Amino acid sequence: MADRVALRRPGMRTALAIFAVVTVPAIGGLWVSAAGDRSDAVADAPKTAAAQKSHPPRGPEAATAEDTPAPQELPGVRECGVGKPVVEPKIITLNCSNAGVVASDIKWDSFGADGAAGSGVVLVSGATGNGSPASFPARLRLYDVTKVDGMMAFTGIEVSYTGATPHAKAKEVYTIA
Questions:
Q1: Residue 138 host element (H or E)
Q2: Which of 43, 77, 154, 163 could form an SS bridge with 142, CB 3.0 to 4.6 Å?
Q3: Is the dihedral of CA 85, 151, 96, 114 positive or negative?
Q4: What whole-number percentage of the chain has pLDDT above 90?
Q5: Contact criterion met (CB below 8 Å) for 122 and 135
């Protein structure tokens, strides 16, 4: 008579081990690929104000052209002190020496002749231990309107972080003339 070997069904431990062996590398791969996307965020952000555009007011509450000054009459933001000021920019380079700190995805709550306020994300190159950039949600306030090269421009921006901070400061001030 021949001995027959009975097939064993995998136990719970074996099933969990197989699940872990398959799932952990898949999740790790997604995390690593997302880290690559994050590392390119600052490099891919437009570095010039010319890449941005102003958006006119929308909706029924939008004022007529006679009630509101023309966009060129409002002060704007010059990209690192160069070029024509852009009204309501979506991206502002905060550290012009190396473009390592950039405010992006800016949504303006108010934008006027004496100041502007909004929110966005501050991307900081090398803020993490592995050299990849990190993002920090923040409130932004433009101030100090000055005539620069014959054009009105904001020359100061205050960044108030709403969560984690890149340099252990809840508030930072930059000169953006």
A1: strand 134-148
A2: 154
A3: negative
A4: 40
A5: yes
